Amino acid sequence: MKYWDYVTERLPSGPVHWPHGARIAVLVAFDYQSEVGEYALPNGMPNYAQITEASYGGRVGIWRLLDILDRHEIKATFNTCGLTAELYPESCRAIVQRGHEIAGHTYDHRPPWKLSEAEEREDVRKTIASIQEVTGARIVGWRCPRVQPSPQTFRIMVDEGFVWDSNFLNYDLPYMLDVGERSLVEIPYTFSTDDLPFIYGSGPSYGFPAPRNTPADLFGIWKDEFDVLYAEAGSSPKMFIWQNHPLVMGRAHRARYFDRFLGYLREFPDIWFARIIDVANLWLEHHNTR
Question: pTM higher than 0.90 for the full model?
Answer without folding.
Answer: yes
